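Re: weekly structure request thread

Next one in the queue (212 aa):
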Amino acid sequence: MQWTLVIPLKPLARAKSRLSDTAADGVRPGLALAFAQDTVVAALACRAVADVAVVTDDVLAGRELAALGARIVPDAPLSGLNAALRHGADAVREMHPQAAVAALNADLPALRPLELSRVLDAAAEFPRAFLADAAALGTTLLAAAPGRELSPAFGTGSRARHRASGAAELDLAGVDSVRQDVDTGEDLRAALALGVGRHTAAVSAGLLIPGS
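Done, posted below.
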């Protein structure tokens, strides 16, 4: 099964506020963009991915991610993460009604194409499926088979909400790069240990990351 990934990205100026202990205000937008760039590069290199749609109204991010091969969908609802994901999935299926759609976090700078393939192949066995994040509280990927609504419930505690919604939780080992999103300095340190993409490596090179 080939998937279209929907990646939401808030305006860079408001992104990654929880990294304030690690990166100054002027650095965080660049980090957020680098995370998204490395996520998109890895996603487009994944054999199970046919297309990547990024939902954003950020002009710089839209330009940079389009240059990498992503399709940019304006965030018309302007009503938060889950509304953006529903809008992105609807936009994809307006063009391709039978598309298999998966929501993927934009902050997976260590993402590996082969690991993402394993997750998407496993997700293809279910009508809806999700992968919990490294903290086992949130979600980094939510997949919906053709003809199934995505029904995203991202945010704090989304693992429990997605499970309660009937989505199958994917119990996979060896997919750490798909689980390791970055919200805090500790998360960034964990991603760096896994090995991040070139964009994140370049931006984070000058940071003094606590505990690293």
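The chain is about 40% helix and 15% strand. Strands lie at 3-8, 49-55, 71-73, 100-104, 128-132, 139-144, 168-169.
Next request, please.
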